[in-house]
Amino acid sequence: MNPEINTPNGINLLCKNLVETDYTDLSEENIRIFKDRLLDITGCIFGGAIVPEDQFLVERLLDWGGKEEAPLFARSERLPLPNAVMINSITARANDFGNMFFHVFEDRIASHCGETLIPMGLTLADMQGTSGKDFITNNIASEDTIARILYTLPVRWPTDMLLVSSAAAALASRYYGLDAQQAKTALSYAATNATDPGESYYDYSQEFKYHNGAGAQMGIMAAEMAKGGWRGLKDPYFGHWGLVTKQITDGSPLPALYEKAFRDLGKVYFTEESFKRGPGGIPTTAAATCGAVLHDKISEAYGEFDAERIKKVHVYRSTSMRYNYYSNPFQLRNHTNALFSFQFAACCALLNGEVRVDLVQTPAILANEKLVELTENSTMDTFECEPRKSMMKVVVEMEDGKVFEDIEDYGNSMHDYPSREFLIKKFWDQFRAYGKLPESTGKKIIELADRIETVADMREYTQLLVLQK
């Protein structure tokens, strides 16, 4: 073990790198991917603003009121900073459509940090008039810090959700101008007051998005406590009963990947880089792709697509894939159930050729009797595929006896980097579903996101994301 990174020196090095990272330290790939992610999450903010189940929360916080210091995106009001970052992060996560998955060394690791960090960063940048370069640097430096900690986790999922609060505290530390010791204090309070979704996906609780908002709030409060002079832990992650080390069960003082996590610190920056093809968890990608392919096959075979010709839909996961909450039946007929259902993703894409945010809202689902009928009557089963592969298969039986089938690679479909055309279409689908801003604003958002590093004041971008009073 390199004595320089023994606990607590390791966390000190991470915090030093967090607060000292400069734009010139980032790679061209870091910046390119981040700009794509900025446009992606901006679209998700607009798409998330249409979710009817979330409106009461905005109304409640507006009713409570307070200092009008920070913007609410896709709305016209301003709220106290902790409440604004909570609403903006929940909105970005509302359709579970944001980019995710850190790629650290050779591993892809599930994460949901960007759905908090990007809207939170936009909120803080609006308040401070931050430059585009600093906005990018603040986000990437924060992600890299948390990605390296996440890499060491003996059990990464769903514990990775606990690190959203830490990511938010890291980001707030940079905007608050904290030094390395203060940043470690902020991380202490975020790590020890973390929330995670637990069983929310399986039971279809909306807590899956609340934790992104709670994490953002915690990040702000953690920075305030550090700035106020409170003392933190020696090492909130790798110290005694730290967030990471409490998972170690074999008596080792540090996790197996601890030393490797410091490799190329300050030289290589890890960020999230996988993009969702449809609202809902990224594992639904293959099921939705199967549905879309079958939509085209059926259209070609009959000269048109007529949903009334469909008799039955069968969805299969390969036996190499473990059973999870996406395999649960579609039975609640609501937004949250739809987001986490293989069967809904397959049937929605089958009927519409794709899965969009406007199609997964509860009122739209209830109004589409054929979609509800097909999804509720569809089956979920397993099938054998070639060894070491994880696949999804959808089979459609037609009333005339014809059968159509498609199989898609489950793993690769989640991480293939999307084309620019896809990202722009995804943005427009959500921007237009929101429908409260002119097309000219959408065009300006796309143009600015692609050159955000040239912007002197991020309010040039954030003012496009709010309704004018």
Description:
- This protein has 469 residues and is of the alpha+beta class.
- The protein is built from 19 helices and 9 strands.
- The protein has helices at residues 9-20, 28-48, 55-64, 81-93, 114-128, 132-151, 164-175, 180-192, 200-203, 207-227, 285-302, 335-339, 342-352, 362-367, 369-377, 410-415, 420-434, 439-449, 459-462, and strands spanning 70-71, 78-79, 100-104, 107-109, 272-274, 310-318, 379-383, 391-398, 403-409.
- The strands form 3 sheets. It has a 4-stranded mixed β-sheet. Strands 4-3-5 form a 3-stranded antiparallel β-sheet. A two-stranded antiparallel ribbon has the order 1-2.
- Helix 1 (9-20) packs antiparallel against helix 6 (132-151), helix 6 runs antiparallel to helix 7 (164-175) and helix 11 (285-302) runs parallel beside helix 13.
- It is globular, with a radius of gyration of 22 Å.
- The model has no long low-confidence stretch (mean pLDDT 95).
